[in-house]
Write a structure and sequence with these properties.
- The complex is a heterodimer of chains A (291) and B (227).
- Chain A is 48% helix and 13% strand.
- Chain A contains 11 helices and 6 strands.
- In chain A, strand 4, helix 8 and strand 5 form a beta-alpha-beta unit.
- The two termini of chain B are 52 Å apart.
- The chains are: A alpha/beta (291), B mainly alpha (227).
- At the A-B interface, helix 3, helix 5, helix 7, helix 8 and helix 10 of A face helix 2, helix 4 and helix 6 of B.
Chain lengths: 291, 227
């Protein structure tokens, strides 16, 4: 690629194919990735998804075995940049919770996540605050500011916000009628959706109250969630692939499954380019006498 | 009747392609999209924050607990950031937010991120009787990576090899992080392309953008040939 590569800087003359490859204008690579991603989007190839990962399966099994009316708290922290990966997983998990008659409490920890909660409820229930079960099985608390401080306050007192996102009093809702403690001890599971950080959820919900934590996280966050798995984080969805797996498990393939062909081909293209780049680097280094 | 949604889709498609146009080169469409995005994001965040602050506050005011208004006054002190004379007042809300954040973090952080990490690592390694290979990798990886950062002893002899091994483990971890970051970015690109290809009338903006790109390439080529 232009401007890059140790060998290119060392030699003014580039004669071999490998050296020429390293001088390719990077914009051709962008064009190649665009074409490779576009083809399967416009004409799906139907590549197999493969086996379901252990992390996804454990989360699915955990939710599947929760007794009816257990409380699942969904923390939406996905901005537009993470929504492609996290939103399909959030919809699939919410669909599973609805099928199992679980109570779901939503809140957004960042302002950009607010519309994604609304969209999730509309995608699964066909309505949000106007659904007959809203206030009985599903409640949206809207945006709670200050991440960890906000969650800490909510975990200590579920009535901390007093009203839901639409201004309805929480104490008047059937959802909150039979809570033994009114704290996070009553929660059966807290699921984080986003790609910024899961540490604060584990800190404020798992250790002090013993509530299991799960995630529907962007792939970029996976390496940070693994240290908590499986003791504190009982399972999680890894990016678009994890969301696609959960969509398959709940029997409702959606946008994540549709995007997996493109994801697979894009990865293949990137892997091939990395291999070519590395061969070119080592070959040209050897020519100049680097070895 | 005019469908306002069409305008929103057209604007979203134009903004998306405007931002991606930076991949060809810096241009005015990119700058317009960049500034519009930053402005819209800031405006939207401010609106939601004000709305949520009011939602949290008004039940207390309804009950006659007017002392809660002090929180609004503290919040408004952020505005003094823009004045030289009263800048010191801006430090009060900052101190409250940072102080409470650190307090909440410290109370749980030591247990969750230090003690539990050590005990879980030890139990993971000791429970790996059924999968001794995993256990061995965990143990060797943790010890060698920690010793890589051990600075009170010169890395010579066996220590040199152990710290080198630790460096390889760290490189593998960084490589893995980089790989999943690429995976995330590709997913984002897929999401945007699905929007551009399948949301009416975004397709027309894509066609227009491709024509403009081809024109820009030809223009650049001609100018390059002239010089």
């Amino acid at each position: 690629m232009r401007g890059g590569g140790w060998a290119v800087q060392q030699s003014e003359k580039s004669t071999s194919l490998w050296e020429k490859l390293q001088e390719i204008d990077v914009r051709y690579i962008y064009l190649l990735v665009w074409i490779v991603v576009s083809i399967p989007i416009l004409k799906p190839l139907g590549l197999p998804l493969g086996s379901i990962s252990e992390e996804t399966m454990l989360l699915y099994d955990f939710i599947d075995h929760l007794p009816p009316r257990s409380i699942v708290v969904m923390i939406a922290d996905q901005g537009p940049a993470a929504a492609t990966e996290c939103q399909p997983g959030m919809v699939a998990i919410f669909r599973h919770c609805v099928e199992k008659d679980l109570r779901v409490l939503f809140f957004a920890s960042r302002t950009e996540a607010v519309p994604f909660i609304e969209q999730c409820m509309i995608d699964v229930l066909g309505a949000s605050k106007d659904h007959p079960d809203y206030g009985k099985l599903y409640v949206n608390l809207g945006f709670i500011p200050q991440y960890e401080i906000g969650l800490s306050a909510l975990a200590a007192n579920i009535f901390y916000t007093t009203t839901d996102a639409y201004g309805n009093s929480l104490k008047s809702m059937e959802f909150f009628k039979d809570l033994p403690t009114g704290t996070a001890k009553d929660w059966s599971l807290a699921i984080y959706f986003g790609n910024s950080n899961v540490d604060w959820v584990v800190r404020q919900v798992n250790d002090p109250y013993g509530c299991p934590v799960a995630g529907g996280v962007g792939a970029v966050l996976v390496s940070r969630i693994y240290p908590y798995y499986p003791q504190q984080v009982i399972g999680f969805l890894t990016g678009l692939r994890g969301s696609a797996e959960y969509e398959v498990l709940v029997g409702k393939p959606g946008s994540a499954v549709a995007g997996m062909d493109a994801q697979s081909l894009a990865h293949l293209a990137i892997i091939i380019m990395i291999i070519i780049g590395n061969i070119g680097y080592f070959v040209s280094k050897r020519r100049i006498g680097g070895f | 009747m005019f469908d306002f949604n069409i305008l929103i889709v057209l604007a979203a498609a134009a903004m998306t392609l405007g931002l991606y146009s930076y991949l060809y080169r810096e241009n005015i469409f990119f700058r317009i999209a960049e500034h519009a995005y930053v402005g819209a994001a800031a405006g939207y965040s401010a609106l939601i924050s004000i709305e949520s602050a009011w939602r949290l506050l008004h039940p207390h005011l309804d009950k006659g607990e007017y002392y809660w208004l002090i929180t609004i006054l503290i919040g408004l002190m952020y505005v003094f950031f823009f004045t030289k004379k009263y800048f010191w007042l801006y430090r009060y809300p900052t101190a409250i937010v940072i102080g409470s954040g650190i307090g909440v973090y410290i109370a749980r952080g030591i247990k969750t991120q230090l003690i539990r990490r050590i005990t879980d690592t030890i139990s993971n390694v000791s429970l790996s009787i059924l999968t001794p290979f995993d256990g061995a990798i965990r143990a060797i990886g943790v010890i060698s990576a920690l010793l890589y950062f051990y600075a009170t002893m010169e890395h010579k002899g066996p220590m040199q090899h152990i710290s080198k091994l630790g460096r390889y483990f760290l490189m593998a971890a960084f490589g893995s992080s980089f790989g999943v970051t690429i995976m995330s970015r590709v997913s984002l690109f897929i999401g945007r392309l699905r929007f551009l290809y399948f949301t009416y009338p975004a397709q027309y903006v894509v066609v227009l953008a491709v024509i403009m790109l081809v024109a820009a390439i030809i223009y650049d080529h001609v100018r390059k040939a002239e010089t």
